[in-house]
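Incident log, support desk, overnight shift.

02:14 A customer reports that sequence design results differ from what the structure should imply. Their input is reproduced verbatim below. On-call engineer (initials T.W.) acknowledged and began investigating.
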């Protein structure tokens, strides 16, 4: 399927610069693109490729000033990265809309309620009283437990497990291998040194427009709900413990972990391999650097922290800069000590 520059421009509200009839059928990186492919330029580091790329069409920022002529047709937009993402989303919609129906073998409980234009892949399990909205896509070998609700346009990729009673909103994407609603890590210590399991009778609620990466785990609440709010984005291999709240549009990178009952505010950014202990509050807009260990609440919005235990980001950078100078500082101190000893000796 081919699209012209003029047609693509209508989809992303772009201004065409060059041949409006130039056509593309696939996408590629700007440094590797060939004729018939579309690329984009958002990072200035790749600007040199704009003048050598074989791409037929390139999406660029409207503010870009050309240093020399280009062969490709340009589509100028306010933000090339966002426009390219929008275009890929529309392409993905076209591709997924083609998948409709129920493949066999699969199990669907008679009490399940199925919306329109759904897709259920082979070897999937749909439990009792499940509700699937319109245009839901459930890929092969997925498990959807009893009383689960999936909103319109939600995509469940192969091998996802959604335990009973969990609610998933609209336009949610859950990638392969992720488990939603597994038991929280609750065990009561006993006098004899053993541990008694505390039943986890809550659930997980994932609101609209959330994306959850592959092999993530989101534990159900002991009571109430573990909550992932609208627009949150979770990377691969993330652990969200019982009764955690992840705020609106909060982003968490791979291998991070959030312990039980911690509440993350809105628009929080958490780097890879960061760890947050339980029962904390993380204020709106906080930035937690990769591999940071957060052991105290962050109460001031837009605070940036780093290190383990995590400290204020700017102060930590200054400390790190000073630590690099410690050998030189030691040498100077020793010289000053010698000088002081000489001065004292002269007075004697």
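02:41 Re-run completed on a clean worker. Output:
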């Amino acid at each position: 399927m081919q699209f012209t520059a003029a047609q693509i421009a209508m989809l992303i509200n772009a201004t065409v610069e060059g041949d409006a009839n130039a056509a593309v059928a696939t996408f590629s990186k700007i440094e590797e693109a060939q004729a018939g492919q579309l690329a984009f330029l958002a990072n200035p580091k790749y600007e040199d490729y704009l003048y050598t790329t074989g791409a037929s069409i390139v999406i660029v920022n409207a503010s870009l000033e050309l240093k020399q002529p280009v062969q490709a047709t340009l589509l100028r937009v306010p933000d090339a990265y966002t426009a390219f993402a929008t275009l890929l989303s529309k392409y993905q919609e076209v591709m997924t809309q083609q998948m409709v129906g129920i493949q066999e073998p699969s199990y669907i409980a008679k009490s399940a309620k199925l919306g329109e234009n759904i897709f259920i892949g082979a070897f999937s399990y749909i439990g009792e009283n499940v509700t699937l909205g319109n245009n839901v896509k459930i890929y092969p070998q997925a498990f959807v437990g009893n009383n689960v609700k999936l909103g319109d346009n939600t995509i469940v990729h192969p091998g996802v497990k959604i335990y009973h009673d969990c609610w998933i909103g609209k336009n949610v994407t859950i990638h392969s291998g992720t488990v939603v609603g597994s038991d929280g890590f609750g065990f009561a210590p006993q006098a004899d040194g053993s541990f008694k399991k505390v039943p986890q009778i809550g659930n997980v609620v994932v609101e609209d427009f959330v994306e959850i990466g592959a092999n993530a785990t989101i534990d159900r609440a002991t009571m109430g709900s573990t909550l992932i709010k609208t627009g949150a984005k979770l990377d691969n291999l993330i652990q969200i413990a019982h009764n955690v709240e992840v705020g609106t549009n909060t982003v968490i990178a791979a291998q991070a972990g959030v312990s039980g009952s911690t509440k993350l505010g809105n628009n929080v950014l958490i780097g890879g391999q960061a760890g947050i202990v339980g029962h904390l509050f993380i204020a709106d807009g906080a930035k937690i650097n990769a591999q940071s260990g957060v052991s105290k609440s962050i109460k001031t919005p837009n605070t940036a922290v780093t290190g383990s235990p995590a400290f204020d980001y700017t102060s930590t950078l200054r400390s790190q800069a000073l630590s690099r100078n410690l050998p030189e500082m030691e040498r100077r101190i020793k010289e000053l000590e010698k000088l002081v000893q000489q001065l004292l000796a002269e007075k004697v």
